[in-house]
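R.M. (postdoc): so does anyone remember the format we settled on? I'll just put the structure tokens first.
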């Protein structure tokens, strides 16, 4: 298996990859601040429940080729490289192991190998990375976190990235950046509503394609027009009953999340609330059946005497089709701040979103 480009990403920075038999793990380049936030989340279980599962961190070595400016004729897949400047080319590293998971190397000729930093995550997994280097490259290290791919379990997810908060910049940012991001907040819905639509995608089942809206669309939204933006997000052709259920679940999720975030002493700058619902009608209905079966098993409290069959059932349940999900993501500029109270800008963003969702839900009740 190998690192693959992350599908269904509607916001955030480039360079996020996925891996695993079903791309169930995300490998995301990060700053030390984000790693620290995830590591300390174990002390905050109420909020941790809303975050992607954190499997640990690793250090990857990017192969730096200074002898060429093009991937043509090298046998290297251009999709795995990113051009930094006119003379330097970076490619994703060749990795052979990650905590016992075999990974496929990329197309470089290997002449030497070296083992880079191992890091133990809060769940106890040790991430050991073996990096293969070609004779014509040098290496630069990237810190990465390994996270649950929260879109795993959906067939055709409709995904919305909502950037939360009225302050978008880190308190330690340069003054120029603070001024620039403060201006962005003032000109967009971030300033008055506490959120901005960073991007979203909606699945059109009749045409078998995604309709995508980028961050420029989100920046163009006003207090008045943002409701129409949400209507576009909820425009998957699922039928009124399914869409009402989606909205009802998101309203319940936001109400629960609002109560949690009011108790958390932290500052989240440019973190996002990621909302997802299934855009395929058949898969949506399958997800409801999976949920019903899971509830029936839990209520019956059936325990098999055969440990092997228990494991098989657990494997099957992990592949169950999802209907909706809501998660908090992106903590590059977030910190825990004991004694300073909750983040009022984030609370405003969740409250505003909840208000709009309730308005949209009323449309289905009329």
């Amino acid at each position: 298996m190998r690192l693959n480009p992350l599908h269904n990403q509607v916001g955030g920075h480039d360079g996020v990859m996925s891996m695993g038999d079903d791309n169930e793990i995300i490998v995301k380049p990060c700053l030390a601040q984000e790693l620290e936030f995830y590591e300390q989340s174990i002390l905050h279980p109420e909020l941790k429940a809303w975050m992607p599962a954190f499997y640990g961190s690793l250090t990857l070595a990017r192969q730096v080729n200074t002898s060429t400016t093009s991937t043509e004729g090298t046998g290297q897949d251009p999709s795995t490289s990113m051009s930094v400047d006119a003379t330097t080319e970076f490619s994703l590293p060749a990795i052979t192991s990650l905590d016992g998971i075999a990974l496929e190397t990329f197309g470089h000729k290997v002449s030497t190998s070296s083992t880079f930093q191992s890091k133990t995550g809060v769940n106890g997994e040790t991430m050991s990375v073996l990096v293969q280097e070609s004779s014509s490259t040098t290496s630069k290290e990237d810190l990465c976190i390994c996270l649950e791919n929260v879109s795993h379990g959906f067939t055709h997810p409709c995904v919305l990235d909502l950037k939360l908060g009225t302050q978008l910049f880190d308190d330690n940012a340069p003054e120029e950046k603070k001024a620039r991001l403060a201006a962005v907040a003032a000109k967009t819905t971030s300033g008055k509503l506490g959120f901005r639509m960073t991007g979203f995608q909606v699945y059109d089942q009749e045409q078998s394609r995604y309709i995508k809206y980028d961050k420029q669309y989100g920046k163009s939204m006003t207090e008045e027009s943002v409701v129409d933006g949400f209507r576009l997000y909820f425009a998957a052709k699922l039928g009124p009953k399914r869409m009402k259920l989606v909205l009802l679940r998101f309203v319940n999720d936001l109400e629960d999340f609002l109560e949690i975030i009011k108790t958390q002493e932290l500052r989240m700058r440019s973190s996002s609330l990621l909302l997802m619902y299934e855009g395929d009608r058949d898969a949506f209905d399958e997800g409801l059946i999976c949920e019903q079966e899971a509830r029936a098993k839990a209520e019956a409290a059936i325990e098999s005497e055969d440990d092997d069959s228990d494991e098989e059932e657990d494997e099957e349940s992990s592949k169950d089709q999802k209907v909706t999900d809501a998660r908090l993501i992106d903590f590059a500029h977030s910190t825990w701040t004991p004694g300073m109270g909750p983040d009022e800008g984030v609370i405003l963003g969740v409250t505003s979103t909840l208000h709009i969702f309730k308005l949209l839900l009323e449309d289905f009740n009329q």
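R.M.: ...and that's the designed sequence above, right after the tokens. Also worth knowing: Residues 240-261 form the longest helix (22 residues). Confidence is low (pLDDT under 50) at residues 67-139.
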